[in-house]
Amino acid sequence: MPWRAEGPLGAPVAEAVDALRRHVHAPDGPFRLLVGADAPDQVTAALRARCEDYAEDDRFVWPAPAATP
After folding, report:
1. Is the overall model pTM greater than 0.70, yes or no?
2. Separation between Cα atoms, residue 59 and residue 62, nearest integer Å
3. pLDDT exceeds cutoff 90 at 58
């Protein structure tokens, strides 16, 4: 994944450490943690690339159809 190499990147170390500590010690919550202002854009780029790769297989449909009971 070609991440940005210039401009402001991620979060300050103290902010990232604090976010990670709160996440680890939380009783519940999401499995994954986004840290830093650029994290959502990086996740979007990674997921888009993954979907484009999977799209080479005709069985892959995204967004996925609603599950049937």
Report:
1. no
2. 10
3. yes
Amino acid symbol at 35: V
Q: What is the pLDDT of residues 1-55, one digit of tens each?
A: 555 555 566 778 888 889 999 999 999 988 899 988 888 998 999 999 999 999 9
Which tokens sit at 50?
């993954």
The count of other CB atoms within 10 Å of the CB of residue 64 is 7
Closest among 38, 1, 36 to 18, alpha carbons compared:
36
Characterise 29 by phi-psi region: left (phi > 0), alpha (psi -120 to 50), beta (else): left
Tokens of 62: 């995204």
SS3 3: coil
Ramachandran region, residue 33 (left: φ > 0; alpha: ψ -120 to 50; beta: rest) = beta
